[in-house]
Amino acid sequence: MLNSKLLSNRSGFTLLEVMIAVTLMLIAWTSIFATQSSSQTVVWKSTKLNDVTMLARSKMSEIETEIEGKRFEEVKKEESGTFPDPWKDYSWKKEIKEVEFPNISMQGGGGGGESGSSDSKDTAASSSDEAASGNNTDAIERMMRLITKFLSQSIREVRLTLSWKQGASDASFTLTTWWVDLNHEFSLSE
Question: Measured between alpha carbons, how far is 171 from 165 in angstroms, rounded to an integer?
Fold first, then answer.
């Protein structure tokens, strides 16, 4: 009688209940580990980007200090190197390039064409307007060429590229600024 009472009053889990509980725990742990792994990757990438940004800012400030007050001819056009410890895995390259501005021309200006009038006064007035317009267009085009030449000679693009190994591939970050020679002479000759 005591035995049958013990058997009927059993408390515990069946094998099926245990397997379902273990499966749910595995699913929860898997998602927790996946989230943890991706958050570690995000932290690593943001730390790397923070280091690169800090190094780029520092090097660009150094370059700006180096070129301040100098003429274009006094500064090396290309230079490269590596950063000191603890950033020796990062390298940098500085390039200074002339900026090419497009030629701006006044095409198609002026009032040519036929007037359809046989009056000689209208024809003479039209011819003098075209000549004045042509002279103005020529002067404007000449001035635009001079300004374009001046800007091309007085502005340089300074490009700083940082490179580093990221796994099996190379990664890079480029920072660009413009260097203007405010002391460059404006010449009226072409």
Answer: 6
Query: Tens digits of per-residue pLDDT, 57-105?
Result: 999 999 999 988 888 888 899 999 999 999 899 999 999 998 888 877 6
Confidence label for 167 from pLDDT (cuts 50, 70 and 90): confident
pLDDT tens by residue, 101-136: 887 766 644 444 444 444 555 555 555 555 566 678
Pairwise CA distance, residues 175 & 157, whole Å:
11
- Please identify which residue in the block is written with the tokens 């000191």: 84
Name the token pair of 130.
């075209």
Which residue in 183, 184, 162 sits closest to 56, CA to CA? 162
**Greatest CA separation for the chain:** 139
CA-to-CA dists, residue 13 to 6, 16, 17, 19, 21, angstroms: 16, 8, 6, 10, 10
Gyration radius from the chain CA atoms = 37
Cα separation, 127 vs 20, whole angstroms: 99
**Cβ neighbours of residue 157 closer than 8 Å, sequence gap 6 or more:** 96, 97, 98, 99, 176, 177, 178, 179
Q: Phi/psi of residue 127, each to 5°?
A: -65, -40
8 Å CB contact between 173 and 52: yes
